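Researcher: Let's do a round of design. I'm pasting the structure tokens now; please hold your answer until I've finished.
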């Protein structure tokens, strides 16, 4: 089964490239393919095989070690090769004549115009498969055409440490395979199934020829296995650490996800729609609580944070508890500008409510107005001298604390409480943020899966715990 993966820029923020430099590590061919050969908006998949959807008189043989430079202008794709130049309003396929049906027979490439962290030592990521490139205005897009199992190889190498228990890696393999087929964000407008960015989908930093025994075994032992609910692939979300209790989907995500619709224009709302297999579950027993009860208020969160004797599936991780200290000067220097920037971004703006004055004054303090089942903040109020601002949704709440002075991109999670100090005049002087977990905390937790595996749980049991009611099926 083939999957099309949209390759983003170095910052992982956009699929648009001003210029793409592709290094061919093996012999391959370049052929012009009609735009109709791209993944259609209704999600119907195409198999890319030269000679079936290419024009023979527009094909070029590419020798190993050759470099291709791709750019776009006014919807025209421009390609410069070692012995040819090509301009076309159609798309191009670059890969092996067989279409790259499996890892061993696929072409090998590096994209030297982008960089990737955690790409197994490759600053410029290495890919196996083929590429479809096309112009979109003055930007170039490039999608990897990969076998689904090859895609899972890359996700495992990017998302989960090789040192993890084999059962935790197997659980990640099933979740990754499922997510690749059914991501939260619809990418049919990009002619792709999924993208490579952890900011949007799951991290895919390329893949190497060499794969360790654990990764290889995890893929082989779960081959073609996905998670389904009522016969459909589920939304197999995962993050790093939930801080002892995972969160309901609806309390973290706005509702642009649908179990049945492929319409990317589905209206968003927050809180989102509940998904029955993405409900908050405990990672272990918490003090003063029954196994299946939430800790959805701040008092209980403070108690749990303070109790260092807690042992849950994820408590072994250094991300289970964390703290950030910020002075009032640091907050005043950056928060106003951060919120102003976010208001200009359609991803964040709907979840920031300004006071009547529309002005961001001097910060007086913070209050969590609403929390989810796991105590993740759903609505944070910022009191300022010109009125109170309300910020909704966990990623938006985490992001408003971006602070270059503190070398802080965003808070690790939205499961936190704040202690503040005031000076002799009653003005805010500093805050200390104490939090639990890393990530949105919905679905499978990687550190929790590792803890469960070390305690003897199989990958089936791990998946059943985090995705309750879902079944393991064949893709």
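Researcher: That's everything. Go ahead.
Model: Designed sequence:
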């Amino acid at each position: 089964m083939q999957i099309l993966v949209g390759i983003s820029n170095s910052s992982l923020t956009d699929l648009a490239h001003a210029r793409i430099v592709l290094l061919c590590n093996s012999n391959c061919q370049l052929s012009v393919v009609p735009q109709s050969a791209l993944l259609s908006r209704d999600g119907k998949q195409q198999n890319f095989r030269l000679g079936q959807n290419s024009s023979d008189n527009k094909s070029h043989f590419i020798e190993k070690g050759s470099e291709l430079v791709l750019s776009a202008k006014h919807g025209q794709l421009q390609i410069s090769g070692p012995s040819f130049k090509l301009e076309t309003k159609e798309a191009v396929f670059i890969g092996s004549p067989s279409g790259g049906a499996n890892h061993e027979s696929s072409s090998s490439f590096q994209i030297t115009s982008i960089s990737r962290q955690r790409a197994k030592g490759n600053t410029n990521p290495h890919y196996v498969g083929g590429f479809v490139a096309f112009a979109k205005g003055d930007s170039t897009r490039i999608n990897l055409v990969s076998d689904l199992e090859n895609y899972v190889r890359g996700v495992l190498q990017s998302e989960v440490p090789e040192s993890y228990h084999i059962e935790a890696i197997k659980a990640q393999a099933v979740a990754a395979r499922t997510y690749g087929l059914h991501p939260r964000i619809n990418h049919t407008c990009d002619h792709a199934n999924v993208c490579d960015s952890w900011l949007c989908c799951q991290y895919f930093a390329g893949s190497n020829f060499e794969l360790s025994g654990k990764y290889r075994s995890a893929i082989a032992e779960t081959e073609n296995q996905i998670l389904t609910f009522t016969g459909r692939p589920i939304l197999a979300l995962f993050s790093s650490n939930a801080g002892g209790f995972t969160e309901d989907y609806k309390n973290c995500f706005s509702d642009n996800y649908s179990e049945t619709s492929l319409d990317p224009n589905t209206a968003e709302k927050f809180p989102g729609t509940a998904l029955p297999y993405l409900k908050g579950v405990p990672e272990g027993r918490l003090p003063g609580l029954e196994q299946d009860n939430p800790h959805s208020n701040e008092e209980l969160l403070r108690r749990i944070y303070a109790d260092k004797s807690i042992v849950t599936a994820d408590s072994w991780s250094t991300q289970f508890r964390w703290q950030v200290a910020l002075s009032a000067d640091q907050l005043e220097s950056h928060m106003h500008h951060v919120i102003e920037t976010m208001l200009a971004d359609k991803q964040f703006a709907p979840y920031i409510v300004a006071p009547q004055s529309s002005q961001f004054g001097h910060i007086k303090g913070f209050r969590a107005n609403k929390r989810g089942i796991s105590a993740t903040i759903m609505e944070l109020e910022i009191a300022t001298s010109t009125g109170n601002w309300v910020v909704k949704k966990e990623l938006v709440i985490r992001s408003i604390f971006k602070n270059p002075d503190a070398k802080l991109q965003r808070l690790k999670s939205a499961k936190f409480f704040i202690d503040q100090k005031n000076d002799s005049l009653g003005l805010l002087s500093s805050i200390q943020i104490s939090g639990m977990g890393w990530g949105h905390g919905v679905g499978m937790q990687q550190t929790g899966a590792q803890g469960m595996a070390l305690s003897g749980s199989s990958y089936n049991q791990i998946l059943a715990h985090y995705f309750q009611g879902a079944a393991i099926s064949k893709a």
